[in-house]
Design brief:
The chain is mostly helical. About 65% of the residues lie in helices and about 0% in strands. The chain has 6 helices and no strands. Helix 1 (about 1-25) runs parallel beside helix 2, helix 4 (about 90-105) runs parallel beside helix 6 and helix 5 (about 120-130) runs antiparallel to helix 6 (about 135-150).
């Protein structure tokens, strides 16, 4: 019995490690130094696949009811950096990458437990798209996301 339990734990860890190991590969290159996802951050292998969808807009064949396309966070980071004042682009990149990780890790969880849903993503994108000051828009969305995450 003990060896069977150990085998299940090893298999589970390897599945989760696989999802985590791939996390950096689909995050845009200039964000990779700002985000890092350990395998323990994913509840299930599907969580890791949905997280990838969040960043890339591409659907893995293993996830059902996935609709590929835009917007996705890799594109959003590019838009936010491009709209930033030249002197603020480095800060905008860092904040946008970290915000993407914060939101994406929660949105990609199972619908039954996540605290950030598609409606929230739409509202966050609207705020970011219409913010006159990109950094203030990112801060505003981060604050709203953190409030959602702490809600019961």
């Amino acid at each position: 019995m003990r060896s069977r339990t150990a085998g299940v734990l090893i298999l589970t860890a390897s599945l989760l490690f696989g999802a985590g190991a791939q996390a950096q590969s689909f995050v845009r290159g200039d964000c990779q130094g700002h985000v890092g996802v350990s395998p323990g951050r994913f509840d299930t292998p599907a969580h890791g696949l949905w997280y990838r969808r969040y960043w890339t807009g591409s659907c893995d064949p293993q996830i059902q009811r996935c609709i590929p396309g835009s917007p996705n966070w890799n594109e959003m980071v590019g838009k936010l950096v491009a709209r930033s004042a030249p002197a603020q682009r480095g800060q905008a990149l860092t904040k946008a990458c970290r915000l993407g990780q914060l939101i994406g890790l929660e949105w990609s969880r199972s619908k039954t437990i996540r605290k950030i849903d598609l409606g929230d993503l739409r509202a966050f994108n609207h705020t970011l798209d219409h913010a006159d000051d990109v950094l203030k828009g990112i801060d505003q969305v981060e604050q709203a996301a953190r409030i959602k995450l702490t809600a019961p």
